[in-house]
Amino acid sequence: MKKLNLLTLILLLLITTASIAQTYVIQARPWDSKEWGYINLDGEYLIPPQFRKCYEFSESGYAPIYEKKNGYYFININGEKLPTEISNFKLKQMFGFGTQGFKEGMVPVLVNEKWGFLNEMGKLVIEPKYDKVSRFEEGHSIAKIGEQFFIVDKPGNEILIQAPGVVDVRVFSEGMAPYKTKDGYYGFIGIDGNIRIEAQYLSVGYFKLGVAWAKTKYETIGYLNTSGEWVIQPQFFTVNDFDPETKLAKIKQGEKWVYLTLDGDIIEFNESDVISEFYEGLAKGKKFNKFGFYNSNMEWVIAPKYDGVRNFKNGYAAVKQGDKWGIIDKQGNWIIEPIYSALKDVEKII
């Protein structure tokens, strides 16, 4: 009995420690202001509004900031600058997503027109020598020197990608990375740098739940497994990756957006004017010009009553009521009342 009580106490301490260690941060812009700051889930400012260009916090606890005078740097949730070995560096711009910060404890930096990586201590752990790099995914980045592509791990070890005629390589997902050849076809490589699926497709997606979409030379799309075998035959013309949580993929059947299951079945949701991809088990919907959220059973769980919404992240979503933004949880409860000109996603720092 004493041993059981001790184990229970240890478990409670671990849970308490984990919950204490997590901090939630949201980029917020006050009403009638052009400057951004950062708030917590109580709506209190951790960092007062003062930035024209700032970006999301990563799990490592740092956010990129850009100032015309000082260039790029990183701050923690106390607003303190991260000391870095180098200055006057640039960061990667992600189309539609802003400036890229730390991912898996690493951030690409451009120094004298070459790319390298900083770690969370501000140390230049991979020297700037690459013409092109990707963010780290699954412990690896894709880097390019001249016409050669490499898989680079966090210590900076390189593996030459053994794919003849390769002109582009994307990031890894489930141990597979799409690559493109000079004749315009796509295939997949493994983390060992060798070809897993030959380049024979007009386009491909990312592996999720062991399958990835691929477009044939006839421009029909189906889903492959990691052995390159069709698990859902090519028959569609517009698709998306499978969502790991709901195990559904948003696809277009004829002129209508629907969902596809891993078994190839079609699920429709006719109660929404828009069909969206799922995030954390919920998808954005629209009805009578108002937005809400529905689940994978095609049921409204948060009624369409908002004037704008962002996707759920870390259990919360920014929603708009009238002209102002606030934060709700997955039950639709207000966590932060709508008083802000703009809010971004709720980021979790561990």
Quaternary form:
single chain
Major sheet summary line: 7 strands, antiparallel
- The span between the termini is 34 Å
Which regions contain 5 or more consecutive residues with pLDDT less than 50?
A: 7-20
Record field, number of beta strands: 35
Rounded mean pLDDT score = 94
What helical percentage do the residues reach?
under 10%
Number of helices: 1
Notes on the structure:
This protein is mostly beta strands and 350 residues long. It has one helix and 35 strands. The protein has one helix at residues 2-21; strands spanning 23-30, 36-39, 45-51, 53-54, 63-67, 71-75, 90-91, 93-94, 98-99, 106-111, 114-119, 124-130, 132-133, 140-145, 148-153, 158-160, 166-169, 176-181, 186-190, 195-201, 203-204, 211-215, 221-225, 230-236, 248-253, 256-261, 266-267, 278-279, 282-287, 290-294, 300-306, 308-309, 316-321, 324-329, 334-349. The protein has a seven-stranded antiparallel beta sheet. The chain has a four-stranded antiparallel beta sheet with strand order 7-10-11-12, with no helix packed on it. The radius of gyration is 23 Å and the shape is flat.
